[in-house]
Fold this sequence. Notes:
Layout: H1 2-36, H2 41-54, H3 58-68
Amino acid sequence: MLPALIDEQALRRSIARAVRNACVRVAQEQGEAARMDGLCWEGAWEVALTAIAALDVEPIVSSCERKGQGG
Length: 71
């Protein structure tokens, strides 16, 4: 039973890291694009936050689960 618990914890950490990385990536991309479009820093920050809030995490979770199952 213990190895399954360790695998589950590793999977949860993997999912958390993947979601965090996706949030950072989408915030950077959208924030930079907003600045290039002429928005002020505050406006670009709002765009970045909106992008994070709209991020669909299901594909990220599914991908991590598949990898965790050897897929």
